[in-house]
């Protein structure tokens, strides 16, 4: 973990993966204050909203934290400016391969840059760019995901990349033993989302937290693409009536594509706006039936609401015990 700790500037190389609506000032500062590394989820925020969120987070912690930006956000450049204005030390670019201009802009600002590598070829490509650190996220994770599992991506990518570039592993990590295993394979740290949702400091609605505590791994299912002409990134969430709404939304957007009223990029943006709204309904309003309860398969290991510090301490103790038991 040492390389990960040095890169992040915290006590444990455990990142709180950015979760739209959930990873805001309270949870992010709590994770950083507990020795982990909190990351603000910018999601669909405007630059002004992000500006406030960073300022409020800074009021709650003096420890380092990062900001996660989605590459397809139409105001990506202004969002980077906002991070630079606040001297944010670490920026995570999510939602597709980061464009060259964004990589240059972030690196010129002096911030450290993290990006997701969904396959070995892309990991190698990112190694040749100015990206500092890679995150490998498998399909066990909650939210938007790729098609391959964490364990396969780790085996495919780590042996070829880990000696040259620090790599964090995300997706399906619920206990410290798994953290130990990925560290042994060459990762420098991990990123967890699902395990932090029910933290006491998380502002997620009580209904959202209850749904997590009740759920088992098999309840966290993938969204279904209903029209082959409209490729949508799969989303993992607890199964509920929202599935129907998403089908209707896809039909509506596919129809607009057919009529030529929108281009593919706009179609995909509309789908992303749909998700932002559906997740907000569940996280903030507590509508866990028609909202999207995004959750990873590790949801079965979320048993109660507890302080972030306890979650991190438990993960660290389990990882340490696992490593000690191997001598
Ligand atoms: C409710 C929820 C919302 C998420 N939103 C985002 C997001 O806005 N941006 C992002 O890069 N990842 C997002 N993720 C993924 C997390 O950052 C993290 O990588 C993932 O949760 C790790 O896998 P795990 O859930 O198995 O721990 C989200 C995950 C969840 C559960």
Structure description:
By secondary structure, this protein is an alpha/beta fold. It folds into 2 domains: 2-203 and 301-325, Aldolase class I (TIM Barrel, Alpha-Beta Barrel), CATH 3.20.20.70; 213-297, no CATH class. 44% of the residues lie in helices and 14% in strands. It contains 12 helices and 11 strands. The strands form 2 sheets. It has an 8-stranded parallel barrel, surrounded by 7 helices. A 3-stranded antiparallel beta sheet has the order 7-11-10, with no helix packed on it. Helix 10 packs antiparallel against helix 11 (264-283). It is globular and about 65 Å long. The chain binds flavin mononucleotide (FMN). Keywords: Flavoprotein, FMN, Monooxygenase, Oxidoreductase.
What is shown here, in short?
This is Nitronate monooxygenase. It holds the Pfam family NMO. The protein is an alpha/beta fold and 327 residues long.
